Amino acid sequence: TTIIEQYFLALKQLEELGDKKGLALCYLYLAKANYHIGKYNEAMQYDQKSIKIKTEINDRIGISNSYNGIASCYYIMGNYQQALLYYFKALKIAEETNAKFGISRSQLNIASVFISQNKFDASLNYMEKALKTKKEIEDYEGEGLIYINMAALYTVKKEYQKAIDCCLKAIHLSEKMTVREVVLTAYVNLANIYVEQQKIDEALVYFMKAYEGSMKTGAKITLVAVTTGIGNCYEQKKDAAAAIQFYKKSMNMAEE
To answer: Model's pTM, two decimal places?
Structure first.
């Protein structure tokens, strides 16, 4: 039997038991399962069924989760107006229940929709809000990732100094982080910002930091990108021997 068939069997048992909380959760899982196989309309129908029961049992945080689910379906279907409508519904409940994680989640989801609409200033506004929430709950990895995403937007807007500042703030948080990949990403982003500005020496400094960090963690995908970046820098500096050395490293890692 498939996982969806198992959920239907569970639904029947929960209905017989009159377990409303279990039913709401099962409908939520059915929504998620359909979402993951691309059946978005079916997923939204199950989210709505879940919301109906959660309303009866006053599970407001659960309702917020289902609103996020519906919004995600609309988002991936390209219906950004409806996606925003439901993300804002989720945010409202999260704020009313003071669910900090839910607040930051909804704020970042809203920021993502604005990016898809090329509304970068609106997106940055909600990233700033999410950043404030992450600071309140001391989610340092979350803070770091937001700074990296903000840096990417500032780079698109060609506001390079703001992009650099965001990357440096992410790196500054590194002592408080357990996830080193955030710092490595910040190094790579900084290097790419300097490349875009034709500041090759500065780019090399941060590519090398990323290279050393990636060697320690064994992050293969990062290493391939970083060694290619270093090769490009040396090529622009007319150092053919060094460029070939790092291009070869990149090719060898990609083939492993």
So the answer is: 0.86
